[in-house]
Design goal:
The complex is a heterodimer of chains A (330) and B (339). By secondary structure, chain A is an all-alpha fold. Helix content of chain A is 76%, strand content 2%. In chain A, helix 1 (2-32) runs parallel beside helix 12 (271-290). Chain B has 2 domains: 32-138 and 276-322, Rossmann fold (3-Layer(aba) Sandwich); 140-273, Response regulator (Rossmann fold, 3-Layer(aba) Sandwich), CATH 3.40.50.2300. In chain B, helix 3 packs parallel to helix 4 (106-114) and helix 7 (204-217) crosses helix 8 (229-241). Residues 15-30 of chain B have low confidence and may be disordered. Classes of the chains: A mainly alpha (330), B alpha/beta (339). At the A-B interface, helix 2, helix 5 and helix 12 of A face strand 7, helix 7, helix 8 and helix 9 of B.
Amino acid sequence: MKTNLNMKKRLESRESVLIGLILLFMAVMTITMPRFIHPSNLANILKDSSILIIVSLGQFLVILTGGIDLSVGSNIAFSGMAASLINQNNPELSPWIILVIGMAIGLGLGMINGSLVAFGKVPAIIATLGTMSVFRGFTFVISKGQWVTAHEMTDPFMNLPHGNFLGVPNLIWFAIFVVAAFFYFMRYTRSGREIYSIGGNKSAAVLVGVSEKKVQFLIFSISGLVSGMAGVLWAARYAAAVNEMATGFELQTVAACVLGGVSVAGGSGSVAGVLLGALFMGLLNNSMTMIRNMAFFQMLLQGLIVISAMTFNVVMERRQDKMLLNRRLA
Amino acid sequence: MKKILSILLVLSLITVAVFANGGSDKAAADDGQYKMVLLVKSLGNGFFEACDDGAQQAVAELGNMEVVYMGPSQSTAEGQIEIIETLIAQKVDAIAISANDRDALIPVTKKAMAAGIKVISWDSGINIGGRIIDLAPSNAEFIGRQQYQLIAELTGNKGQIGILSATSQATNQNEWIKWMYEEAKKPEYADMEIVEVVYGDDASDKSYREAVGLFSKYPDLAGIISPTTIGVLAGAKAIEDEGLQGKVQLTGLGLPSEMQHYIEDGTCVQMALWNPVDLGYTATYICEALITGKITGAEGEMIPAGRMGEIPVGADGSAVMGAPFVFNKSNVAKFAAIF
């Protein structure tokens, strides 16, 4: 009971450190560039982060079990391309139906990963490294190498992420909805708790009757599902389905998870942490474009900030551990 | 028994191998087709596919060529080097390359030329020594100056101009941008200035973000030049999303089929591009002339290039095809159907 409480405290503090970092970063940006805090820019940051948040949450589940899903970027490309082609060829179809189809396609790809890992016993990093190329390859196959661009897409389709509901862009609503769903799933459902248990102590979890195969299949399927959703939103948002879209995006999702306090060894991390990690990445991406004549330092600075944030996070955590330990000894 | 069986098996395998080998040699000798590879920066790019269409037109006219279209799945020099290595082993007759790196390909293309393969570069060049002829779609000076003239026409020769480029080390774009700065020095552009060059890395999300960044960094921005297909597309979408049509003008280099929507709705009133069909067509003619010995690539020679006329070989094997073509509302639909 006591350790449980400590655990909870620790997780919460990890998130408060991140919130502190985000606020600090925003303060520095605002002081150097007042236009940074302009509502339209803040809205842009949220819009920019939305897709990253959605996909990072899927990645989070996989990392939670000690795995990794490298195929999310390619999954986005395939689902986005497929959805755009469907839209191009069936302009009368509702964008919501296309979204569902895109999610189903993403889910299908995720299930392929899940089968390879759960039933084929292929290590996650190898399986998804392979499917990363396969999915990207199939993107070229279905598109015949062509792009689908604005004049081939319908307005309702492009409005799917771009439209507004209650003054908030749909893209942000999608992210809110996914965050809420993940929050509920991870905290209140049996499957959600099983994912934590497999990542935390696999042998113990298996002993009490958790099926490792079921969990592995489930997490890759979910990761695929949200990637499929992200693919449709991505293509519609930029009004272009390009074969190379989201190349390298998998690394951003991993970075968002790790920044958000998800342990790569598995077992620990929270939805709120991932949300904050992804927001921090979005903030960073946005702020880099706000500083004049920064082009050549962008990557360098971005890397440095991520490393410092991560180090700061770890140092804080270690200090807390020590404090807890001292308290227990006392 | 087992032994005899395995010996028979081995023997039959050898015969099959010998015959198969002999067969393919004979086929190559018989139809006298020269095999050329059109090696592009990356697969899945509409521009390069249009180049291939042009190459196939030249194939149909020439009758003695066979052109295979190849490229790595991502635009890296490493990917192209791997492909060239296999082509050397396959002993093709010519390789026409749009290079991902000006210098990185030189060792492997030198190896190819030593093996008797005619190597030319086109669209994005390889440095001197790494190819026999470099076919430029147009010259950098004309493209760069024209891009600046196009945006000046749209902004009425005044205001702040941002440039949204591809990657910071892209050979083409850097050269063109240099000439945009040259053009900007002319007195008629006294009220105009290039405020910044940003890099979208030819990724739609990064290009979009950089475009939005330009709007917020320079609230009085009058125009954007984006001399790259993904950049100009993402820039157009960003202008549309931010409701800046008419306030921020856009021009660049883009494919008519991809930009049709934005040209027709006035987000991008005019943009330029050389005709990629002609580019692939001309590259094929040059390779044929080199293989058959009509030319050697020496300065002053004239390359016969079918409907493109005769193209002179300049210093260091450089050849220039022609001037970029301007697309606008009046002609975009017609060209969108082609590429």
